């Protein structure tokens, strides 16, 4: 008997896949601090601005593009 987790073979396997950032969105989003490009880190669910040294969180599939919400890169 299948379990609810594996009844739909097309369903995302992980939450990261369920909340992946569309490549078309990455083409138009820029860092609010540096105005530079962003890189998507699927594992951490963050958008990374190397120019500003910041990582912006993605919560429930929504990028939080506020400098106050970002963490400083190490």
Describe how the helices and strands are arranged.
Blueprint: H1 15-18, H2 23-28, E1 39-41, E2 46-49, E3 54-59, E4 62-63, E5 71-72
In short:
14% of the residues lie in helices and 23% in strands.
How would you explain this protein's 3D organization?
- The structure is a single chain.
- This protein has 74 residues and is an alpha+beta fold.
- It contains two helices and five strands; from the N terminus they run H-H-E-E-E-E-E.
- Strands 1, 2, 3, 4 and 5 form a five-stranded antiparallel beta sheet that branches.
- A hairpin with a 2-residue loop joins strand 3 (54-59) and strand 4 (62-63).
Count of domain modules: 1
Overall spatial form: globular
Spell the H/E element sequence.
HHEEEEE
Distance between the termini: 47 Å
CATH topology: N-terminal domain of TfIIb
As a percent range, the share of helical residues equals: 10-25%
Low-confidence stretches: 5-16
Proportion of beta-strand residues: 15-25%
What is the highest CATH level, the class?
A: Mainly Beta
CATH architecture annotation name: Single Sheet
Number of helices: 2
> What radius of gyration results from the CA coordinates?
15 Å
Structural class: alpha+beta
By DSSP, the count of extended strands is: 5
The pLDDT mean sits at 83
Main sheet summary? 5 strands, antiparallel
